[in-house]
Specification:
With about 170 residues, the protein is an alpha+beta fold. The chain is built from 3 helices and 5 strands, in the order H-E-E-E-E-E-H-H. The radius of gyration is 38 Å and the shape is flat.
Length: about 170
């Protein structure tokens, strides 16, 4: 066999090895995270529930879901162990922003400088323009209706002459 025929198999085996190796590393990191859980830390389950760890056992964990409400979960059901700041921000809504951090405005007012023209735009139509346009539109609609009326009358006369309405067949 030549090297050219073996090359695709070698590449395929190498790719499979790298994929399984990265999956094993992720599993080991998750297991290590679960083993390092301490009572009092905040966690998020794989179902998205946030709770505080009360007791840690070999393969299960006692979680406090709400004050005085406890639940037993498998260790494998712990999706992430959160640090205290992140847990308090998510669960309790505590926002500790640093004074040095830049404040990002929630509107576009900071994009315009102090020299920008702040004059308001008048979006109201003038009454003269409103009165003139409806008259023209009404006259145009009346003339279109008059043009369409003779055509409709001619069609109805043709149907009456034949004695057949639309969709009727003259089978004898």
């Amino acid at each position: 066999m030549s090297l050219v025929t073996l090359l695709p198999f070698i590449v395929l085996i190498g790719a499979m090895f790298l994929m399984t190796r990265s999956a094993k590393k992720k599993q080991q990191a998750a297991a290590q995270m679960r083993d390092e859980m301490q009572p009092g830390t905040g966690i998020r389950t794989i179902g998205g529930m946030y709770a505080t760890v009360k007791e840690v056992h070999d393969d299960m964990v006692l979680l406090e879901v709400a004050p005085g409400v406890h639940a037993v979960y498998a260790k494998n059901a712990i999706g992430a162990v959160l640090d205290d700041d992140e847990y308090n921000r998510i669960v309790h809504g505590d926002d500790h922003t640093e004074a040095d951090a830049p404040v990002v405005p929630d509107d576009a007012s900071s994009l315009t400088g102090p020299d920008a023209d702040n004059a308001k735009i008048d979006l109201v139509k003038e009454p003269e323009a409103d009165d003139a346009e409806p008259k023209k539109d009404a006259e145009a609609k009346d003339s279109e209706a008059e043009d369409a009326a003779p055509k409709a009358d001619a069609d109805s006369k043709a149907e009456a002459k034949d004695g057949k309405a639309d969709g009727e067949a003259g089978a004898k």
